[in-house]
Amino acid sequence: MRPHNLIVQPNITEIAQRLRSVRIGAQLTLLDVERLSHGAIGSVVLGSYERGARALSLKKIIQLATFYEVPVEELISGRKSNHSPMEAKSTIDFQKTRNRAHTDIDIGILAQFLTGIAHLRGDWNGQIITIRESDLRVIALICHREIGEVRQWLSTEGLLIK
Prior knowledge:
Elements: H1 12-25, H2 30-36, H3 43-51, H4 58-68, H5 72-77, E1 89-93, H6 94-99, H7 105-121, E2 128-132, H8 133-142, H9 147-156
Antiparallel strand pairs: 1-2
Helix pairs in contact: 1-3, 2-3, 8-9
């Protein structure tokens, strides 16, 4: 006798219901999705996915998640991201960070990281920089801090604007 699996896997019906729920939450009809995706996601096929009557490939679930702008994990598992869109971005005083780079090793590392982001984005404003939640995770790693500490640290150092 096999031990019971402790991992609860989603079933097709649940995923199909989530697909429909996300579409309806976006106030889109099946035809709207087809039109907005320029035919890449057909209304008849999407309806079949939403009823659980058609197999959903990984490629298609990624395409749908991208179209709806939701994480793949949310479509499959139903777990929502614990970060609201308002928390997704933070603004840092880039100028102050660069000015203080020589006073603290972690601030120096932060300044180098932010400079790299600015170069990648072609953002030469130089006064402030907006970073994403994923950037905060990287900052936590390179500065050997917990993700929960990073915003507090930036705020305490006077580098976090919002």
